[in-house]
Amino acid sequence: MHGPGTPNISLDPQTILRQEAEALIKKGSAKPTLGWVPGINALSMLYDLARAPETAGDALKFLHELQVHQVELDLQHEQMEQDRSELAEELTHFVALYDFAPVAYFTVDSSDRIIQGNRAGASLLGVACGELSGKRFDSFFTPASGLALLALLKRLRSGSIRETCAVKIDSGEGVSRDLQVVASVSPSNGYLLLVLMDTSDHQELDSRI
User: In what order do the strands lie in the sheet with 114-117?
Assistant: First the structure.
């Protein structure tokens, strides 16, 4: 604990790692090594130091440093495995949120082609999820709506932060459905992110009121 007036010194990660390794060795609770083997040069140096009485103490110090380094490697490996497991769980969680969301989501590239779409999006466009990738996004809509959608995508690539427009999709037999598009640009890779909402039911409800 720091006393009054004692500066709060923040240790760097490497120092903290060494202190943890030292403590484990001191308590004898370090886990069995994962197989890290000292290089031939290190072993040769240790042998040369150990066989001479005047450098035997240095050999013990060197051996201790090798032990500390091995424990540090094990601790780093353990942390990496834990981080990898946590990232895998988070990825699975967010993939499930995306795939099974009740709203239609799409990711579109610079050529106006769909990179990815979720289940709700595929259902809204009347295709299977596996058929979305590579298709031009505007090809699913009526000609006029396709042009409006392409103009929206162009505005986004020209610097607009968020765009929205109304479009129609042909549901077959001359029946069209009214949709609302809300789109923005991904800050990480420049892909266009789109949400598609079916407004036909809302319009039918409004007409009945």
Answer: 114-117, 104-108, 192-198, 175-185, 162-172
